[in-house]
Structures are given as structure tokens and as C-alpha cells.
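Long-time lurker. I teach an intro course on protein structure, and each term I like to show students one example going from raw sequence to a predicted 3D structure in C-alpha cell notation. This year I'd like something fresh instead of my usual example. Would anyone be willing to generate the C-alpha cells for the chain below so I can use it in lecture? Attribution to the forum is fine with me.
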Amino acid sequence: MMSQQQAVPGGFALVATVPVDTQGSIIVSDGATNGFVTVDALKVVNADPTVVAGTKVICANHTSCNESQFESQPATNMTDRVCSPITACPPDTFESAEPTASADRGCSPVTDCATDEYQTAAPTSTSDRGCSPLTVCDFSLQFQKAAPDFETDRVCQNNTVWCVRVSAAACHPNAYHLHWSPLAYL
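-- Reply from a regular --
Happy to contribute to a lecture. Here you go:
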């Protein structure tokens, strides 16, 4: 008997060609006696004229991927589709690409804020951590009013410099001029 691969309609993959008897029943031989088999979960289609007379083509339904799987190898008329489990993102990662029917979920590492940054958005299962640069105080004009922590920026406040002019010398340009007079305290 000659076996031949062929395309068959209806989304079925070719499994095999097998011999049939004169009534079209599939013949199974155990080596001692010939018997007939009932084929469950398989579809027998009429033999194509190119298939050797006395055979039928047995086809099986393509595997269907469930909602926790994606198609890692598509089905053809000669092969079944391959379904693979959708990856679960491990700790310290987030889902950077949603799974589709033909692609796995993409996972990316969660960003660590640098020492000169603070967290502006906490990471979730589907989003990365947001980080922003810490404010830098200009210590010639400002002082640090509140220190930064992991989730809070540094707060700087302008210096309030009071200059009491007791001589003709000018105060620093960022200072307030107070004209001191001993009469003000009498």
C-alpha cells in the first residue's frame, strides 16, 4: 500500500492512510487475525482519487489551545498545532506585552530608581515603576526643608537672610536690608 500526504478541507490534519475492506471499513491487523476498528475522535474522509484504491485518509481535528495557552506552532494540513502555556511573570517583573492567540506574554524587569531619583509611580503587574530625579537645592540660596525618601522628593526652601546694616557696606544681594536703629529698641 502506498501512503500519501494530502491537504484535506475543514481544518483537519492528516494522520495516516490505512487499508479498508470492500465495504469501506478500516482494517486493523494484529498479525494473527484481521478485525474492524471503531475510530473515535477521528474523521474518516473519502479517499482522494490520487490515494491508492482500497485506502481511506484518516484525519484528526486540530488541537485547540485553551485560554491559558497560546499557539506556539501553527497547524498545517499535515501537522497539528502546538499549544504552549502562557508564561506567568516572575516576581520583580511586570507584563510588558499581553499574550495573544499566537504569542506568549512578555515580561520585563521592574526598574530600580537610582540613588538620585525617587519613585513617582509604584509598579503593578502590568506597569513599570516610575522614577524622577530628586530636586537639588542651591545651597547658596536655599536649604533642605524636607529630606527625600523612596517615594518623596526633596523639598528646598529659599533662605531668609536678615542683614542688619551697621556700616556703609552693602548686604548680600539675597538678604533683606533692615535698617537698624538703636532708637527702635528704646
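Some talking points for your students: The CA atoms of residues 75 and 81 lie 4 Å apart. The chain has no helices and 15 strands.
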